[in-house]
Each structure stands twice: as structure tokens, then as C-alpha cells.
Recover the amino acids of this structure.
């Protein structure tokens, strides 16, 4: 019996010293637009930050913010990071979506979005945003961030919102083509795209969005209400990994504190999804030109989100009954410092 007891103890010791089998990672789908602003998710996957949090990430590409919000509500994707749209707010009102963090933001210490005019409109007098009355402004859809920016710029210049004609064109490439050809008169867009267009002969930069919407929370991180309520640990792990990707993005492309070798590696990661059909030597400067800050720790400017919600209500794009509590869960991240 003593020999049997010794054998049992030895077996238990060997079991205790044996490596534990790895727990299966949680499979999640993350919506992305093929824009540099989605770099933190790309970096977090490429550098293993998601894997470190026990997350196996599959990216699902989208072409517009509203479609991504629908993807969250239908549970086709688990997390998204893009602009707050009227569709997203309406889905939040139905209890399907929650904003859980912030991403791209207009800040004083980094470049921001540009206000553009077609060369034809510029030559006809649209040399500053003060001349927007009667002009055609490109948007993807009604209730998009482009629509919001157009109205805030008009407000800042004392131009009646109804005097600026919104032209919905569904996709960014269609807006670019329409601006260059003079089919629309004005648009606002992130700096790498805006500055590149303004270097050509058909588009002129006439202002900065930050002059009209300071500290604008341009994009946000969101997920399903079910994830927030039933799986908060998953949400926390996602945000923890994303925050590491944000830190690397800011260091490489905004603050430029990362070494050239490491920055080049970051750019190569991003290039797998952004400007992927362009050779890396041409895509590299385009990616580096983006330069807008993404909030460390996915901090959320709640005041900016509330201003956007009030705008949606003022335009009749969402019910007056929608509250910030319906739209936002502030328990996962801080506000920007």
C-alpha cells in the first residue's frame, strides 16, 4: 500500500509539472475599412497582440460606416471602428449596438481633416468655407460623418444648413471622382487623401475641419450590446490588444518616435490591407502621410459623441428619444486627457 501511495503521489507530481494544454482562442470578426485610420487593428493582429489576449481575429472589409454598423447588429462581425452614422444610432436605439471607445480624433498636436473645393468651384468663388451657400457637398450617405462635418462647417460660417446641398455618392472613390470632375463643389476628408488631392490640378484645400469642430471624435469603436452585457471580458481583451496597436501606430506615424526600421515594418503590415494594389515603394509615403492621432487606450470623447447625437436629432435622422446611455457604454475606457 505504501508503494501504491508513493506511485500515486509521483503521478500527481508529474501531472502538476506537465505543461497545461493551451486554451482555445476565441474567434472574432473585426470590420475594417481599407484606410490608414484602421491601422491599429491591423498592427494588433500582425504583432500578435490579439493572440496574446486569446483572440483569433478575422478581418471583414467594408466600404462605408453604415454597412459596418449593420454588420455588428446582424452579428456578422463582433467589433468595428468607424464614424458614428445615423444608422448606427438607430441600431443603438433598438438595443443592438454600443459605442465602447474612441479612435480617430481631431487634436491640436497632429494634422487633421481638410476641407476641399473642386478647382471649378474655387475659380467660381469657393475660396473659403464661408462661400458654401448654394454649393454641392459630397457625402457617402445622409447621416454620415461627411454630412455632419458639412453642417458644422456651415454653422461655423453662419451659412444656413439648407443652403448646402448634400450629394450622396455611397463610396469615397465616387466622391473623389466627382470632386475632381467638378460634379460636386466641396468635400472634407482625412489629410493623406486631402493633401494628395490638393497637390493635383483639379482640387484646392480651403480650410481645416478642426477650425469648426475642435476635439471632434471622428471615429469610434463599437460592438454588439450582447457582447457588452454578456461577454464584457471579451470586450476588455479586444480593447487591450487594440490599445497596443494604437500605441504603435501613434509612435510610428504621428509622433515619429519609433525607429525607421520598426516604422518600415509597421508600414509593411498596414500595406497588406491599405493601398494593397499599389507597390510598397509608392504606398509607403501615402500611409505615412496620414498622421492623424488615434486616442491612446481607445479613450472616448463623450462630449463630442453627444454633440453628434444632438445633430442627428436636429436633422430628424434619429428619434428624439435616443439617449447617450442607449448609444454609449463608458465603462471600458477613459476620456482623452
Amino acid at each position: 500500500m505504501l508503494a501504491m501511495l508513493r506511485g500515486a503521489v509521483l503521478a500527481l507530481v508529474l501531472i502538476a509539472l506537465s505543461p497545461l494544454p493551451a486554451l482555445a482562442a476565441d474567434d472574432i470578426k473585426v470590420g475594417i475599412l481599407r484606410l490608414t485610420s484602421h491601422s491599429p487593428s491591423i498592427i494588433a493582429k500582425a504583432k500578435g497582440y490579439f493572440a496574446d489576449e486569446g483572440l483569433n481575429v478575422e478581418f471583414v472589409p467594408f466600404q462605408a460606416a453604415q454597412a459596418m454598423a449593420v454588420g455588428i447588429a446582424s452579428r456578422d462581425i463582433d467589433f468595428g471602428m468607424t464614424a458614428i452614422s445615423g444608422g448606427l444610432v438607430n441600431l443603438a436605439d433598438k438595443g443592438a449596438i454600443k459605442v465602447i471607445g474612441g479612435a480617430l480624433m481631431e487634436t491640436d498636436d497632429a494634422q487633421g481633416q481638410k476641407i476641399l473645393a473642386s478647382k471649378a468651384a474655387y475659380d467660381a468663388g469657393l475660396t473659403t468655407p464661408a462661400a458654401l451657400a448654394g454649393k454641392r457637398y459630397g457625402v457617402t450617405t445622409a447621416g454620415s460623418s461627411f454630412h455632419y462635418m458639412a453642417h458644422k462647417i456651415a454653422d461655423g460660417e453662419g451659412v444656413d444648413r439648407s443652403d448646402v446641398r448634400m450629394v450622396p455618392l455611397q463610396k469615397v472613390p465616387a466622391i473623389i471622382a466627382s470632386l475632381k470632375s467638378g460634379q460636386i463643389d466641396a468635400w472634407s476628408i482625412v489629410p493623406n487623401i486631402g493633401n494628395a488631392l490638393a497637390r493635383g490640378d483639379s482640387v484646392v484645400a480651403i480650410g481645416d475641419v478642426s477650425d469648426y469642430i475642435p476635439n471632434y471624435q471622428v471615429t469610434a469603436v463599437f460592438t454588439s450590446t450582447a457582447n457588452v452585457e454578456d461577454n464584457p471580458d471579451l470586450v476588455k481583451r479586444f480593447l487591450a490588444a487594440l490599445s497596443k496597436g494604437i500605441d504603435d501606430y501613434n509612435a510610428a506615424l504621428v509622433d515619429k518616435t519609433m525607429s525607421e526600421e520598426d516604422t518600415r515594418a509597421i508600414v509593411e503590415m498596414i500595406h497588406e490591407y491599405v493601398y494593397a494594389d499599389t507597390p510598397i515603394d509608392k504606398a509607403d509615403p501615402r500611409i505615412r502621410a496620414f498622421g492623424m492621432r488615434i486616442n491612446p487606450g481607445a479613450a472616448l470623447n463623450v462630449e463630442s459623441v453627444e454633440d453628434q447625437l444632438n445633430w442627428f436629432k436636429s436633422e430628424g435622422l434619429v428619434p428624439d428619444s435616443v439617449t447617450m446611455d442607449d448609444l454609449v457604454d463608458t465603462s471600458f475606457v477613459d476620456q482623452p486627457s
In short: The radius of gyration is 23 Å. The longest helix spans residues 232-254.
